[in-house]
Amino acid sequence: MNDYARIEKAMAYMVAHAAEQPSLAVVAAHVHLSAFHFQRLFCRYAGISPKRFLQALTLERGKQLIQSSTSLLDIAHTLGLSGGSRLYDHFVQLEAVTPGEFKRQGEGVEIAYGVHETPLGNLFAAVTPRGICRMGFVDATDSKALLARLAKEWPRSTFQHSPETTRYAVERLFNRADEGAAALSLHVAGTNFQIAVWRALLTIPEGQLASYSHIAQALGTPRSSRAVGNAVGANPIALWIPCHRVIQQSGALGGYRWGAAKKQMVQAWELAQLGATPH
């Protein structure tokens, strides 16, 4: 088992046993390491301490959502922006496939893809010359399934296995870009409604959550919560388009393509990163 796999396994164990508040020694033993070595390894790869990650897991995030009256549009207006879709344009830019590109079905477009190890699990990433077009969690066997799905959406494109080309898409998630760095570009295909929902997801700040109904209201379609849920489920770029920040109005975790445990893991890791100083 490599170091990334150990960290992912440890996080998954803490998610499953958060109510028991497992000690450092117990979690370390689960991944067959001494407490001292595990502490150093976790801080190095996850960027936070095991204790901080466990603390983030135990916060009652759902209650915070219900008690908050701040909508996505309120956040956007507070920052003086024209609307929710522009809230993080200077960090991440979402570019929709043009009608011409859709008609050509990717003809003339070369798509690079690769699989990268991370503390949260292996990530499949694919990029076009215009930006990241696909990202998702994979295990050792299902990266081919994501590639096949991508090939179905871009049938006339050419595909090149090139982890060197896609590495930036993953590294920027775990290594913050310097201030003034160029915005990251996402190149996605979807219906107008899906694009609107994905843009709305970009307005949810790190470490915060929104409900499906919050997003529906922000889009001016308050009765479209179910359609919002479908669009969230169709998100093509995990983590960068943060569907993990959407939960049910009741405070329940809600669905996630890669499972509820993975969703909780990502939420806790992201929350713990805010102002984190490993120790």
Automatic annotation (TrEMBL):
It is an enzyme of class 2 (transferase). Residues 8-105 form the HTH araC/xylS-type domain. CDD domains: ATase. It holds the Pfam family HTH_18. One of its GO terms (biological process) is methylation. One of its GO terms (molecular function) is sequence-specific DNA binding. SUPFAM superfamilies: Homeodomain-like, Methylated DNA-protein cysteine methyltransferase domain, Methylated DNA-protein cysteine methyltransferase, C-terminal domain. PROSITE patterns: HTH_ARAC_FAMILY_2, MGMT. This is methylated-DNA--[protein]-cysteine S-methyltransferase. It comes from Halovibrio variabilis. The lineage of its organism: Bacteria, Pseudomonadati, Pseudomonadota, Gammaproteobacteria, Oceanospirillales.
